[in-house]
Design brief:
Helix content: 10-25%
Shape: globular
Oligomer: single chain
Order of helices and strands: EEEHHEE
Largest sheet: 5 strands, mixed
Number of domains: 1
Structural class: alpha+beta
Length: 124
């Protein structure tokens, strides 16, 4: 069973909290989709939008479990994505995880949007 993202340690004296991660989903080529995190710059790929989202969720779950085992805040090693990714997310079409039959990891609030075009720079 996967541990939750609720972390308290010497470096985190706040109460356990739900973490938030926004994902921008971009079609790189036909049948090749990328899901990229904004607050934490992670990237996962899939042949469909749903597959890319599921891959991103698995990555979040795995890194969260690792970070908790090592007394780190979840995904703290990943810096924020470049501004062009944030812009693509803001201009994109929101999609709920439920539409894609994907469940958010325990302790995480995931907000996803499909970009209408690739971010201005090729940064993947």
């Amino acid at each position: 069973m996967l541990e939750t993202a609720r972390v308290t340690s010497a470096r985190d004296d706040t109460f356990p909290q739900t973490r938030r991660l926004s994902l921008v989903i971009v079609q790189e080529a036909p049948g090749f989709w990328l899901a990229r995190g904004l607050e934490h710059d992670i990237v996962a790929e899939g042949r469909t939008i749903g597959a890319a989202l599921r891959a991103a969720i698995r990555l979040i779950e795995a890194h969260t479990a690792f970070d908790i085992r090592h007394a780190h805040r979840p995904l703290e090693a990943f810096r924020a994505a470049p501004q062009s990714c944030w812009n693509a997310h803001t201009a994109g079409t929101p999609v709920s995880l439920g539409q894609m039959d994907v469940a958010a990891p325990v302790g995480w609030e995931i907000c996803a949007a499909i970009a209408h075009s690739r971010p201005t720079r090729s940064i993947y």
